[in-house]
Design goal:
The protein has 1107 residues and is mostly beta strands. It has 4 domains: 23-413 and 448-519, Methylamine Dehydrogenase, Chain H, CATH 2.130.10; 520-607, Immunoglobulin-like (Sandwich), CATH 2.60.40; 619-904 and 985-1106, Methylamine Dehydrogenase, Chain H, CATH 2.130.10.10; 908-982, no CATH class. The protein is 10% helix and 36% strand. The protein is built from 17 helices and 75 strands. The strands form 20 sheets. Strands 55, 56, 57, 58 and 60 form a 5-stranded antiparallel β-sheet that branches. β61 (875-879) and β62 (888-892) form a beta hairpin. The protein is globular. The termini are far apart.
Length: 1107
């Protein structure tokens, strides 16, 4: 009776598990998969002598006995690799010994490939180790077919095929047909076990040759019954060097040729090799182009995956790193910010790199020129999954979009800074041997990073949900390689994971039971030499929704997934399906029924001729109009205030346009920087702008305005001085007025403005007092090197061309102003003032007959809840967007694609006082973090950075553990949070609808407008459809180096519609400004046509014509 009850309980438990979780773990007693990548430390295998000893192994999927069921391979480091045959019903048999599949070396990656085109899957294993000096030959197990018992037999033949690669530490290999000759070539990813500083930003040419990867060509040799592989790396320009941990292929530039992406650990940057082969080209080459496509990367790049995440038919790249999600682990891992080292790496031609996961959303091309990807890991909430290894992007719930599975864990937490400090101090004395022995001994009791794996559900293209605890029972593990595969043939993707010191996970997916979604499994039968059709591109259309996939089995980390392609579907019928095969031919299928395994053959494909459709772009880049590249003075604001999150000395260049000489067309002023003068540019008869007059070169020009100051009928020039590059009260912060002689020649009027040495950001001109001349609002940006102290903004009244400060107490201490606009909001004939800034609320001042008084404005959200508008606002644009007769606004803000994401209930704060009483402010930032005690307000900065600023705290917070366990208020002894700090509650860029009666409704602009700071907005009906549109520029490349720069914006065309706004991507609009830009203006040329002008910091100014 007890046995019956026990069985019933087990049965109910399994059923409950299926109902509760989307995935359940298959018990090893059922699956018979008992593989564990067990690693035991010894004198040579330990994190001191071999830093990669816990990087783990992979998983491979193949059908080794051709019975239609997916079989599994697990790679082992100290243990032998294993092969398991699928017997059906989630039961497997270990045939490793009987099939002659045994390994005795440090096996890393696996790829399954029919290398000799005999119809049987073979196994290629990469081999590394602590010392790979001619002692780490890769292994190629050739499938010999079945024995009498139906067991596949394998013979190791890597050397015979030219693929032993014994001299190098191989981490993974990937097979593909780079030269389109029909057979499979192979790229071998290399790493190295080195005790040297791997993060030294040395010149790349000095890195060791053993870090070079290899590309082998598949050659057919007369008299040999199998291919021989020839190393052609150098001749094909495969020259990059790195600590390779991940590799993948895809077609990044749309030419139907396979390109290569390489994820490199440490400071060695990721590489993107574009395939330059053409049909019948006997000398194809590769072009390394990572900086043309990607603005920043993961620093410690681990595993990587490539897939079309947002269903726009453009490949996206996910690379994993090791930023913890847990606050305490973050503070115990992250050290001090070293901006000088970052600058050195930039000077030595490394891409920007940051310690976090990165998801690069591809942005396509404009007339063959790549549009840089937008990295959105922070915005989508997938940036921080701790020490992570395998990312897999696939549709796990069959809802038509791809989700993300991530493995993580490390056996020894060697990133714990308290341990590093202790071990450093304890090994100060002694011989090198004794110090090493002490360090190895200290590692024995070091805990590991033992965490559950992550899974994220894609709810929309802009929203991912962490469903780890919802979909999978939490099991802390040291997980590495992983694959997706439909093990039980039920139409959903199961997951298999290779673990260190623990039995592998077999996770069965219950989507087919729990959800009413659909699927299509697609088996591509390629040619004889590429039977899995590696390099094929598949596009599916289902009820107006497109999905695309690229056929490559090497995905994630060290692993080889199922070659059967899987689509999840909301509907049960597919409108059409297109396959572009590796040879360029095409197959089309229509009205395909879902919930089946569909087989397509390359031999049935037809010739494919791509239509050469001209891009119908609204904006066209005009490089012939104005040739200007901004030269920024070298500066480092962090020298003066180490805790800044960004710099304020790199905000140029400003730009202004107007007709200043009375001839047809506008002239242009482009502001200067320190030692680089601002210049006036005039258009020639050929339509090209050339500089005619240089102004002063000792200032940092931050804003410029053409305006008739002296009422003589021509336009004069006001130039604001600002930045953070000079000391407080430096004369170099004096604003200037240049008077026009009527012919476009300008002379500085040194007496027009009162003496005022402050850093300004904006100038807004209007006749404040309605006396017939123009007055100014001068917005002050900051007090130099005293952030976040509040500077003094001013009203300047015009007295016959000479300006005097007007006493407006309401204006004086507004905040750190970034932009201001005048607008008569109540139609009383007096211009009112709208002001925004950093750590400021949106402020509106009513002009009461020349006196500005705060206007009590009500700001509400879409649900009519009142909003606190404090943000990091950058710009204002005004227009009657909804055509109701009053003025609405657009506000550019910081965006939500960063580490800091304030909300109404969870603001971010900055300390605004001098804590240690040394005469300088201490701008410590804090935000709310989820902890075991609930939400807590905690410092954002690291311990090292705060101790560099506040050395008086070092004794109190001696360890990183101590620091990690203190909150913001305790750290700085804050008694009254509101009076001792500034705060921000909103980072989204917004549209503000004027509801009348002093009320505005704030609606977030489309998510494409939230990927980076919006620095300027220009309003116009660009497409002449009767609706007002906007173009936007932004980004900020000056940020500190822990969380990184904001560079995901490529320029936005925001198309006005009857309902709201549509963000049109650069590839479809032609408006492409990928740099850090603070201004976009419109100017008229000599033919009275408008052009857009957008300068970029340290980059080329962009000019666009539009239809």
């Amino acid at each position: 009776m007890a046995i019956i009850i026990g069985i019933a309980t087990l049965f109910l438990s399994c059923n409950n598990n299926k109902e509760k979780f989307l995935f359940s773990y298959v018990n090893a007693k059922k699956s018979n998969i008992t593989f564990s990548n067990t690693i035991i430390e010894n004198d040579s295998i330990n994190p001191v002598n071999f830093q990669y000893c816990y990087n783990g192994g992979g998983v491979g999927v193949g059908d080794f006995n051709n019975d239609g069921l997916p079989d599994l391979v697990f790679t082992g480091n100290q243990v032998s690799s294993k092969i398991y045959l699928n017997k059906g019903g989630l039961a497997f048999t270990d045939i490793s010994k009987n099939s002659n599949f045994l390994t005795t070396t440090w096996v890393t990656g696996v790829v399954i490939v029919d290398i000799n085109a005999d119809g049987w899957d073979d196994i290629y294993l990469s081999v590394g180790g602590s010392n790979c000096d001619n002692s780490c030959p890769n292994l190629l197990f050739i499938n010999q077919g079945l024995d009498k018992q139906g067991i596949p037999q394998f013979k190791e033949q890597a050397s015979a095929y030219g693929l032993d690669d014994a001299q190098r530490y191989a981490h993974q290999a990937i097979f593909f047909d780079y030269d389109r000759d029909g057979d499979l070539d192979v790229y071998i990813l290399h790493n190295a076990s080195s005790t040297k500083d791997k993060n030294n930003p040395m010149l790349k040419k000095f890195r060791s040759n053993y870090l070079s990867d290899y590309l082998f060509r598949n050659d057919q040799i007369e008299g040999v019954d199998h291919p021989i592989f020839t190393n052609v790396s150098e001749s094909l320009n495969i020259l990059g060097k790195g600590f390779g941990l991940g590799v993948g292929i895809n077609d990044f530039n749309g030419d139907n040729l396979p390109d290569i992406y390489v994820a490199n650990d440490y400071i060695t940057e990721d590489l993107l090799y574009l395939n330059n082969a053409k049909k019948n080209n006997l000398q194809p080459t590769f072009i390394e182009a990572n900086k043309d496509y990607i603005s920043h990367q993961s620093f410690n790049a681990m595993g990587m995956d490539i897939a079309d995440m947002n269903n726009d038919n453009i490949p996206d790249i996910l690379v994993l790193d090791m930023l913890p999600k847990d606050y305490i682990r973050q503070k115990k891992m992250l050290g001090g910010m070293n901006y000088d080292r970052y600058i050195m790496s930039q000077e030595n031609d490394y891409n920007s790199q940051y310690v976090r996961n990165t998801l690069q959303l591809g942005n396509g091309f404009i007339k063959g020129v790549p549009v840089k990807a937008s990295e959105v890991g922070f915005m989508l909430g997938i940036s921080s999954t701790d020490w992570s290894w395998a990312p897999l992007m696939a549709d796990f719930d069959n809802d038509g979009d791809k989700d993300i599975f991530i493995t993580n864990g490390f056996v020894k937490d060697i990133t714990d800074l308290d341990f590093i400090n202790y071990s450093t101090q304890s090994t100060v004395f002694g011989t090198p041997k004794s110090k090493r022995e002490k360090l190895i001994a200290s590692l024995k009791n070091l805990p590991g990073i033992h965490l559950p794996n992550f899974i994220y559900e894609q709810e929309t293209v802009d929203k991912f949900n962490d469903v780890s605890a919802k979909w999978i029972e939490e099991k802390p593990s040291f997980s590495n390689g992983a694959v997706f595969v439909d093990l039980d043939g039920d139409g959903d993707l199961d997951i298999v994971v290779n673990n260190i010191n623990e039995t592998a996970f077999v996770m069965v997916n219950h989507t087919s039971e729990q959800k009413e979604n659909n699927y299509l499994r697609l088996q591509l039968n390629g040619n004889k030499l590429n039977s899995k059709a590696i390099g094929a591109k598949i596009t599916l259309w289902n009820n107006g929704k497109m999905q695309s996939q690229y056929q490559s089995v090497v995905r994630g980390y060290l692993s080889s997934v199922d070659p059967i392609i899987h689509f999840g579907l909301k509907n049960n019928k597919i409108d059409s399906l297109k396959v572009i095969w590796p040879d360029g031919k095409m197959t089309m299928a229509y009205g395909v029924v879902s919930n089946q395994l569909l087989r397509l053959d390359q031999k049935d494909a037809k010739e494919y001729y791509a239509l050469n459709i001209e891009d119908n772009l609204l904006f066209e880049l005009r490089e012939d109009v104005l040739d200007f590249v901004q030269k920024e003075n070298l500066s480092n604001d962090y020298v003066y205030q180490h805790l800044l999150m960004k710099q304020y000395s790199q905000m140029g260049p400003c730009v202004a346009a107007a007709n200043i000489d009375g001839k047809p067309g506008d002239e242009i002023f482009i502001g200067g920087s320190k030692n680089e003068p601002g210049k006036l540019w005039f258009q020639t008869s050929s339509g090209q702008y050339l500089p005619r007059q240089s102004l002063d070169a000792i200032y940092e020009d931050t804003n410029a305005l053409f305006v008739d100051i002296d009422n003589d009928g021509d336009l004069d020039l006001y130039v604001a001085s600002g930045g953070n590059g000079f000391e407080k009260d430096s004369p170099n912060y004096q604003d200037r007025i240049y008077l026009n002689d009527g012919k476009g020649n300008f002379i500085k009027d040194g007496n027009a403005l009162p003496v005022s040495f402050q850093s300004n950001s904006t100038v807004a001109a209007v006749d404040i007092d309605n006396d017939g001349d123009l007055d100014f609002f001068i917005g002050a940006r900051l007090i130099p090197r005293a952030y976040p102290d509040i500077p003094e903004s001013k009203i300047l009244l015009n007295a016959n061309g000479k300006f005097q400060e007007d006493n407006h107490k309401n204006i004086l201490k507004l905040g750190m102003v970034t932009d201001a606009k005048w607008q008569d909001l109540d139609n009383d004939g007096w211009q009112d003032l709208i002001v925004v800034g950093e750590w400021m609320e949106i402020s509106i001042f009513k002009n009461k007959r020349g006196v500005l008084e705060p206007w009590d404005i009500t700001w509400v959200d879409e649900n009519n809840n009142k909003i606190d508008t404090k943000g990091w606002w950058n710009c204002i644009a005004t227009a009657d967007f909804d055509k109701d007769g009053d003025m609405d606004f657009m506000f550019g803000n910081q965006g939500i694609n960063g580490f800091m994401k304030p909300t109404q209930n969870e603001p971010i704060y900055i300390y605004k006082k001098d804590f240690d009483l040394n005469g300088g402010l201490d701008p410590v930032l804090a935000q709310y973090f989820e902890t075991k005690n609930g939400l807590e307000l905690l410092p954002i900065h690291t311990r090292d950075d705060i101790m560099q600023q506040l050395s008086v705290l070092q004794k109190k917070y001696h360890t990183y553990e101590d620091f990690a366990n203190t909150n913001f208020k305790e750290l700085l002894n804050i008694k009254d949070l509101e009076s001792e700090t500034l705060k921000a509650t909103i980072f989204e860029s917004m549209y503000a609808e004027n509801l009348g009666n002093g009320s505005f409704k704030l609606i977030p602009l489309p998510k494409a407008c939230q990927v980076a700071p919006i620095n300027d907005i220009l309003i116009e009906d660009f497409d002449n459809d009767g609706q007002l549109d906007a173009v936007m520029v932004g980004n900020d490349f000056s940020s500190e180096t822990h969380y990184g720069r904001y560079d995901a914006l490529t320029g936005i065309f925001l198309k006005g519609t009857d309902s709201f706004f549509d963000a049109i991507p650069s590839r479809k609009s032609g408006f492409y400004v990928p740099g850090q830009s603070h201004y976009v203006i419109s100017a008229k040329n000599q033919a009275n046509s408008s052009v857009l002008i957008a300068p970029q910091n340290k980059d080329r100014l962009k000019v666009f014509s539009f239809k």
